[in-house]
Amino acid sequence: MKKQILGTGVALVTPFNNDYTVDLQSLGSIVEHVIRGGVDFLVALGTTSEAATLSSAEKHLVLEKILKTNNGRIPVVIGIGGNNTNNVIEDIKAISFDGISAILSVTPYYNKPQQDGLLAHFNKVADASPVPVILYNVPGRTSVNMKAETTLNLGNHPNIISVKEASGDLSQIMNIISQKSEGFEVLSGDDALTLPMLAIGSKGVISVVANAYPEKFSQMVREELNGNHKKALSLHYQLLHMIDLLFADGNPAGVKSVLNLLGLCANTLRLPLVGVKQSVGQEIAREVARLQVS
Fold this sequence. Notes:
Layout (H helix, E strand, L loop, with lengths): L6 E5 L12 H13 L4 E4 L11 H15 L5 E4 L5 H10 L7 E5 L8 H14 L4 E5 L1 H4 L5 H7 L5 E6 L4 H10 L5 E4 L5 H6 L4 E4 L6 H12 L3 H18 L6 H9 L16 H16 L1
Parallel strand pairs: 1-2, 1-8, 2-3, 3-4, 4-5, 5-6, 6-7
C-alpha cells in the first residue's frame, strides 16, 4: 500500500525583506503559524514560494529553514519540476531527502508536451525519486492539461501517490476519482473548489489561503472528511470571499498582502511579480478585519 500524504497542505510563501533578500526569520514564523493552526503537511518551493526567482543557494536556505523549524512534526513536500526531464532528474539526485516525505512535480510548461510525453516524463521522474511523487496539473500556468486517462495511467506507478488537480474541471476530476487505482488519491489545487472536490471524493488540498488562515481552512477540510458537511460549508463560506481576493491580482501577491496585515511578513515580491493594486489591497484589509471578528 502506498503511504499517503493527505489533509491540508500549505504551499508556503517565501518572505522577502525590503531589500528583496530572503527573510528567514519571517519564514520560520509562518511555518510555526501554520503548524500551530493545524495543517497536516508543508509544501516548500512550490509556485507560491516564488521559486522561479530564487537562486539555488536561496532555495537551499529556504528548505533548510523550513526543515529546521518543522523539526519532523509534520511531513514536508518539496517542489521539483520543470520542462527538461533530464534536468529534473539531476535536481532530484542533487538533493538530500533527509526530512522530506515527497516531491510535488508540475507538468512541463512552455514546450507543451503531448500526453505520451507527460507519461514518459513522469515515469522517469518517479523512477528517479527516492520519495513518493505527487503530480501537479495546473494548465492555467503550464498551457498543458494532463488528461484523466494520463493521470490514471500514472497512478498505477508504485512511486506516484496522488495528483494535485488545479484544472478546475470537475468532470475531469470526477473521472479520475471514480476510476483511480487503490492507493492513488486526488488533492485539490484550488482553494475555492476544495470543499466541492472533497465532497466528490478528493482527500485533501495544497492550499494558499492556509498560509494566512490555517486553523479555519484545515478545520473545514477535517470537518468535510469526517462527514460534518454543515460545519465545513459554514467555514467554506467564511473564507470564500478572501480566497477570491487572494487571486484577484495573482498569487502570491494576494496572500502576501494578507500576511503583511497579520504581521507575519513584509508585502514584498520579486519581479516580475508585484503587489496587489491599491483597490484590491483595500478590500483585502476590510476582509482581514471581518475575519478577525468572525
